[in-house]
Amino acid sequence: MYSVRMRAAKGGAHELGGLHISGAERLAEAGCLGDVAKAMIERALTHAKGKADFIRLTIDEVADEVRIVPLPMIKTIDVRDEADGLCAAKRILEEAGVAQIAAERAIAAVANGEKNMRGAMAVAADTGQRVDGCGDRGIRVSRMDSQDEQALQLWLSSLGLTGIHVREAVVLAAKVMAAPDVAAELCWSDDPGYVAGYVAAGKTYHRITKLKQYDSARGGRIFFVKPGADIEALRGFLERQTVLAALREAGR
Ligand code: WAQ
Ligand code: MG
What we know:
alpha/beta, 3-stranded antiparallel beta sheet, 29% helix, binds pimeloyl-AMP, binds magnesium ion
């Protein structure tokens, strides 16, 4: 099996100040690499945020042991507007043990950040202080995929959920929820036309139908980590451990 990762930017490479356009990560057998790579390149060239002028594709064989993790349950919370959505997000975060100040700081960091990151910020669940030390890049979760893509697609469509955003987000959230010391994750897309986001905590992916205004290109991800967490171990798991997310593991 191979890990395939893509990151694309406009105005030059990310590390040279380019604007992040799109990223993707999959696991694939050798025979599927061409198709997976092709789909990723197309995505970078046809993205709503603009046409990438920098595309970095990385493919490497997965040699280490693969961990199977459960997919979360999905619960949709229908909200009127983004203010209601953010209220719902704060409530769920607090139930997950995130301090109010930490939730508010994190939301402000995503909503007002002057530049979108290609990765996620890790912040302390008690204070909201940034703990990852990864700067503009953040922690990029990779080396994950579904264990059975067809089963995942069937399950999502049975819930009325189609489209790539949810599919990718639940797989990512499954890995994040299996990580050591993560209390919760908050995310909303940077795609201007995609306003839904989620809070993942415990075994549940709480979809919130509006977390930002339509047409806004501001989005991001925050991992709330428990006090005393080993950040290097967390980052190692999120960036390097190969993970397959499974329905069966979740008892469904
Ligand atoms: N690792 C860490 N952070 C990431 C990753 C990753 N692999 N991929 C994206 N991010 C961060 C990065 O800061 C992006 O700017 C931000 O998240 C948003 O990424 O159920 O599409 O890929 O309908 O635009 C939520 C689905 C979709 C809600 C979220 O995020 C639903 C989405 P995007
Ligand atoms: Mg995006």
